[in-house]
Specification:
Elements (H helix, E strand, L loop, with lengths): L11 H19 L11 E6 L5 H12 L3 E6 L11 H8 L5 E5 L3 H10 L4 E3 L7 H15 L6 E5 L4 H12 L3 E5 L8 H8 L5 E4 L2 H5 L4 E4 L11 H7 L7 H4 L7 E4 L11 H6 L1 H23 L2
Parallel strand pairs: 1-2, 1-3, 3-4, 5-6, 5-8, 6-7, 8-9
The chain binds phosphoric acid mono(formamide)ester and norvaline.
Length: about 300
């Protein structure tokens, strides 16, 4: 594993190894055992979109690992004024030990990896959000004691979260069921990947059908970053694609709810369901820190 660009690139073993390492690092943190594995290393963090969790968890994670993180806003850097990604990659590779990037096009992340000579981590693109899904899998395994054989259900937009959840869930042996409106389906590459898994993958336009006997229900905003102007159209398209009490009633007993956050109560999830599952959702947010530290260690340790 040289980079962390998308879950499609990882084997099941690599995903599980990262989850085990994330659990170990979480335990060390809780026990107050220092772990300066990345002493003297610097991570550059390029942001072309807003962030609370990703920025703070990566920056804190690098500090806890004995290294340093540098926030690079595309608004202030030359990359935001059109300097080619190919050149940015080669310049930053001369200073840094790794780059985390949050941007629009997946291609930009792949280009950084192609032209740079240091590990690249995808901190969200329009195509996928692999760091988030590592945290989700860590949280589900903590609460359920296993991943294999569980049913994951995703309700809503076939966006970056849906794409990563489908790939991550199937790779670790879960069955994955997704409900989305027909014009908002996941990416074709992800659907092609999922097709290999036969009836372990289901896609429907009926949220209740997707949620039946689920062990974990996930959702995400109806309009992602960059789609703000489509908010009204999307509100109409996604009406009914909500995680609410009626939907939770058809899931398995003890069914978890996960949300990558930020959440829009009254849209993709009701306030009632959100609050009833708040502990699980904030464990998920916390696990961004531990899961990403595992990725940083795996890619950047000597
Ligand atoms: N879930 C997530 O990636 O949050 P931020 O946008 O706050 O980083
Ligand atoms: N789908 C959302 C996820 C935010 C963490 C977005 O891309 O805005």
């Amino acid at each position: 594993m040289k980079h962390f660009l998308k879950l499609l690139d990882l084997t099941t073993e690599e995903i599980l190894e990262l989850l085990d390492l994330a659990d170990q690092l979480k335990l060390q943190k809780k026990q107050g055992i220092e772990h300066p594995i990345l002493k003297g290393k610097t991570l550059g963090m390029i942001f072309e979109k807003s962030s609370t969790r990703t920025r703070v968890s990566f920056e804190t994670g690098m500090y806890q690992l004995g290294g340093h993180a540098l926030f690079i806003s595309s608004k202030d850097a030359q990359i935001g004024r059109g300097e080619p990604t190919e050149d940015t990659a080669r310049v930053l590779s001369r200073y840094l030990d790794g780059i985390m990037i949050r941007t629009f096009e997946q291609e930009e992340v792949e280009t950084l990896a192609k032209y740079g000579s240091i590990p690249i981590i995808n901190g969200l693109t329009d195509f996928c959000h692999p760091c988030q899904v590592m945290a989700d899998l860590q949280t589900i395994r903590e609460h359920k004691g296993k991943l294999e054989g569980l049913k994951m259900c995703y309700i809503g937009d076939g966006n970056n979260m849906a794409n990563s959840l489908i790939v991550g869930g199937l790779k670790v042996g879960m069955s994955v069921s997704i409900a989305c409106p027909k014009d908002y389906q996941p990416h074709k590459d992800v659907l092609d990947f999922a097709a290999q898994y036969g009836d372990k993958f289901q896609m429907t336009e009926s949220p209740l059908e997707a949620a039946k006997n689920a062990d974990v229900v996930l959702t995400d905003v109806w309009a992602s970053m960059g789609q703000e102007s489509e908010q009204k159209i999307r509100e109409a398209a996604f009406a009914g694609f909500q995680v609410n009490d009626e939907l939770m009633a058809v899931t398995n007993e003890g069914c978890m709810v996960q949300h990558c956050l930020p959440a829009h109560r009254g849209e993709e999830i009701t306030a009632e369901v959100f609050e009833a599952h708040a502990d699980e959702i904030f464990d998920e947010a916390e696990n961004r820190l531990h899961a990403q530290k595992a990725i940083l260690v795996k890619l950047m340790a000597d």
